[in-house]
Amino acid sequence: MQDRTLIILKPDAMKRKLVGEIISRIEKKNLTIVRMDMRTLDKKTLDQHYDEHKGKPFYPSLVEFMSSGPVVVMEVQGRDAQSVMRNLMGKTDPITADPGTIRGDLGIDFTENLIHGSDSKLTADREIGIFFGA
Ligand code: IDP
Ligand code: MG
After folding, report:
1. d(CA 59, CA 40)
2. What residues flank ligand 1, with Cβ below 6 Å?
3. Is 53 a catalytic residue?
4. Helix-helix angle 81-89:19-28, to 10 degrees
């Protein structure tokens, strides 16, 4: 089976109408979107998804932002899909993300950084389970 990763286009990507731009970059890399759904995330789902960040100073504003409007949730497949997507996304803080990456080219805010991608195979399985149930 191909590697798989869980991608979320965050509420700022929706509000700024950058969903097409970001999906286009994923497609141009020749990764495959196998599941995709637009939904508004509730606190319970976000608590599960961001469990590792609970208690950190940015956590309340992260959950507030992530539940502030619809997001696009995707399962993306391809060779080494997690690290390929992390490279396309760029570093977490768009200020230090390299030009040519999604975050480096399109944003400037640390919390509102457009996109989530699983950081390992194990995380991908866990996150795909949360959002798609298997
Ligand atoms: P990642 O999204 O690149 O995996 P994580 O460290 O897992 O980065 O953080 C999850 C999300 O929380 C980030 O994408 C960003 O939206 C937000 N975040 C992380 N660290 C900070 C911070 O120091 N200030 C503000 N927001 C942060
Ligand atoms: Mg992370």
Report:
1. 18
2. 53, 58, 62, 92, 110-111, 113, 116, 119
3. no
4. 130
pLDDT string in tens for the chain (134-residue length): 689 999 999 999 999 999 999 999 999 999 999 999 999 999 999 999 999 999 999 999 999 999 999 999 999 999 999 999 999 999 999 999 999 999 999 999 999 999 999 999 999 999 999 999 97
Q: 46 is written with which tokens?
A: 């976000």
Hey, CA dihedral for 37, 42, 44, 46, is it positive or negative? positive
Closest by alpha carbon to 76, among 90, 86, 67?
86
Token pair for 32: 């495959």
What distance in Å separates the CA atoms of residue 13 and residue 31, rounded to the nearest whole number?
A: 19
Taking the alpha carbons of 123, 126, 128, 130 in that order, is the dihedral positive or negative? negative
